[in-house]
Amino acid sequence: MRFLLSITALLISSQLLFSQKSAAPTLILYNGKIWTGKDAQFVDAIAITGNTITHIGSNTDIKKLAQKSTQLIDLNGQLATAGINDAHTHFLSGSMGLTGVDLYQAKTLEEALSAIEKFVKEHPNKKWITGMGWQYNLFKGGMPNREALIALDKISPDRPIVLDAYDGHSIWVNSKAMELAGISSTTQFDGFGSIIKDPEGKPTGAFTEAAGSLVEKIVPPPTTEEKLEALRIGMKYAARLGITSIQNASGSVAEFQLYETLLKQGELTLRSSTAFSAGKNTKEEDIQQFIQVKNRTKSHPLLKAVSIKFMLDGVIESHTSPMLEPYSDALPDGTHANSDFALPLEKYQQLLNRFDKEGFQVYTHAIGDRTVREALNANEKAQQKNGTKARRHRIEHIEQCNPQDVPRFAKLGVMASMQPIHADPGNIEVWAKAVGEKRIPHAFMWKSMLKNKAHLVFSSDWPACTTPDPIRGLHIAVNRQTPEGHPPGGWVPEQRITIQDALKAYTQGGAYSSFEEKIKGKLQPGYLADIIVFNQDLFSIPAMDIAKTKVVLTVFDGKLIFNEN
């Protein structure tokens, strides 16, 4: 014990010596409950110099470091943690959505139609009405139908309307949009997805997966300046939510260059890591361009692109995710029984091998239990072929996973990248019907992943979610209930996790995923100063009060970028 005390004294003396020689702190947060990220370790105060945390400790010790130039902020006993890392987002799409019709809060078809009508009236000069956020349970049968099409046409008979579902895997359009796209009863689509038609063979205005491109390809693209302005709006929104890092789960080199523009102009207020989209049409010239960007950005603390994203399936709600057994709500004629893969397995394996060999981290979108298994199989084969295991490849979503496959994540070093918001019990009616009672216990298996030592990383999938707010995600991860308490006892309650584990998945999980666990995700000396403050102590309040919490202050790269007061 005496030896340990001597070591502790030596460490304290070393830290005090460091403080005497180092530059004066530029910012001190004190009088708080600051979670360092080390299990249950809390401190009162934290000192920041430039963009780096230099000291943590008691109010007395840290405030002694202050100079005249130091900004001091009294946290009034509030909880502070590392900034949220939204490790799977489509940030440009979400930001663009903030400029269109917002249907995320619509709980009924009537509410959705009212929001659309209001937007149309308020924007009389918009030639195309676009928006996102509608949910499948707004419609009988789970998809926009003929009645919904008639309602859209009544709101806007002369201007085209194109609305993305909340998950980004389906669109809902009016007749004018289909007319401009040349869509009729005779139009066929042979790719991944479908044109939804009524019993008479007439299009209902609903399109799933890639079939949506038949309409989306004629929607006028936004200008570069419109995209940049949307990103500025999105970054302000993220700051209010406490999001200081993102990992874009899709993108192009051109999209990445938008962030580079903001970085050069000193406007970037979150750390961004991009995964370039790849698939069956990816060419060698694309791969070489991805390699070039990776090599020049891999060590940048604000902006990098070292990952690749594959779409291996769709979503359960539209029956486009392959399952080990048929969907439970398949029709008697076999319709909706199962699905093909979005990317042929042979091509997926070929590309995965190539990108793994080139040193890329790979994200694979896999929702159905069969897709998850095939993604794990492919990762295992790539490791065997290339002799690699340190790429930190990820499987995205994993809404269904056969229990036999759960231990394979840790064994293969593949990260489980999941979104608590997708398990909101208030929005899973269509999902649950398709999955069926037998497979419900295998839904969103966060606890099982942790028990089996998988690296769990949380995110929102914005805008393919009802809200990007991490508070809602934390609430669902801990409670598996709606904020109103539905269902009593929780939905698949055995998969609930603690608030500490949930916060780690939103902070340290994302840092590990982007190979930055030694510089962010914790509040320790030497780490980057990305810090958020909550108005409630998430560690001590009743679990059902988590949803009532909000972020009141956000520090990014050592600078205050949001303060509610």
Describe the structure.
The protein is an alpha/beta fold and about 575 residues long. Strands 8-15-16-17-18-19-20-21 form an eight-stranded parallel beta sheet.
Salient structural properties:
alpha/beta; six-stranded mixed β-sheet; 24 strands; 33% helix; disordered N terminus
State the gist of this model.
The chain is of the alpha/beta class and 565 residues long. 33% of the residues lie in helices and 21% in strands. The longest helix is centred in the first third of the chain and has 20 residues.
- Indicate the percent of residues in helices: 25-40%
**Poorly predicted tracts of residues:** 1-21
Q: What kind of sheet is the major sheet?
A: 8 strands, parallel
The total count of strands amounts to: 24
Tell me the Rg in angstroms.
Answer: 24 Å
Strand content: 15-25%
How far apart the termini lie comes to 46 Å
SS-based class: alpha/beta
Total count of helical runs of at least 4 residues:
18
